[in-house]
Design brief:
Layout lengths: L2 H32 L24 H9 L2 H33 L2 H13 L4 H14 L8 H21 L5 H8 L4 H12 L1 H17 L2 H6 L8 H5 L11 H33 L4
Helix pairs in contact: 1-12, 2-12, 3-4, 3-6, 3-9, 4-6, 6-9, 6-12, 7-8, 9-12
């Protein structure tokens, strides 16, 4: 590697390191404030490290878990995320397989509608969505996965279709000759080959659904059901005062699982997207 190339690499390394620090620092600020006493969290002390007088230990985390029902909200978020992501992976991959293999005017139209749905802003349909969910009885944690399936299908079908186009059809034809039905061919042959894209789509959809605040707020009955992002806004006292310490702790407890999940599996996102970009 020449000196010029080394200089360019060093320059971009410094730039990307600076950008990374900018992105990570707000999370660090939330973490240090989650360890402070309530009186030590203010506009002028947000970025100060806790000392012996302001250090609250794990008291804020204890309050966040016990006082506002964090555990039920956490379990509800896990249930909604798991069911919604599972539905997206199974149904969208199956739909993409059908679209690619049939490949007629109807499937091309359907694929175009899926792609078009990716550019429709959520704010454009959120009020009609709330009314439709109420009429179709989709306003519960047990059925909200259908709503997420509809909104997440565009990206999922797009990624799955890109990967399936790169898979030779010979293996599927051999399975059919051996007596496999279409359903057996899909689950026994096609589905295992989709592993890179399944992981990528699963990670992206998990990050979206886990952190989503607006859609559950519009669809669910907030008096009965609260996900973790919804719970954060309830750290308020009388006259609009905010319990900043427990709120910061709750934010950290929300961010931490998603961050760890993403960091552990982030390499699969690149592999999955690259695998789906081979053809078409």
């Amino acid at each position: 590697m020449s000196k010029k190339e080394k200089s360019i690499d060093l320059f971009f390394t410094v730039i990307m390191t600076a950008v990374s620090v900018i992105y990570v620092y707000p999370i660090f600020a939330i973490f240090i404030n989650s360890l402070k006493k309530e009186s030590a969290i203010g506009t002028n002390t947000v970025f100060k490290m806790p000392d012996t007088q302001t250090f609250a230990g794990l008291a804020n985390y204890s309050d966040a878990v016990s006082a506002k029902g964090f555990i039920p909200a956490f379990l509800l978020s896990v249930f909604i995320t798991v069911t919604s992501v599972a539905a997206l992976l199974v149904f969208c991959s199956m739909c993409a397989w059908y679209i690619v293999r049939v490949n007629n005017r109807l499937t091309k139209l359907i694929y175009g509608l899926f792609v078009f749905s990716m550019i429709v802003p959520f704010q454009l349909v959120m009020f009609s969505l709330s009314q439709t969910a109420d009429r179709l009885f989709l306003n519960s944690p047990w059925t909200i996965w259908l709503v997420y399936l509809g909104f997440g299908a565009g990206l999922a079908v797009f990624m799955f279709a890109g990967f399936i186009r790169s898979v030779p059809i010979d293996v599927e034809e051999a399975a059919v000759i051996d007596g496999c039905s279409p359903i057996q061919t899909y689950f026994l042959v096609v589905f295992p080959m989709l592993k890179p894209t399944l992981i990528s789509v699963g990670i992206l959809q998990t990050m979206w659904i886990w952190n989503d605040y607006l859609l559950p707020t519009l669809v669910l009955d907030i008096k009965k059901y609260k996900t973790v992002p919804m719970l954060i806004q309830y750290f308020r006292g009388s006259y609009g005062s905010v319990q900043m310490g427990p709120m910061m702790a709750c934010i950290m407890l929300t961010v931490l699982p998603a961050a760890v999940f993403y960091l552990v599996l982030q390499k699969y996102i690149v592999k999955g997207i690259a695998a789906g970009a081979v053809k078409g």
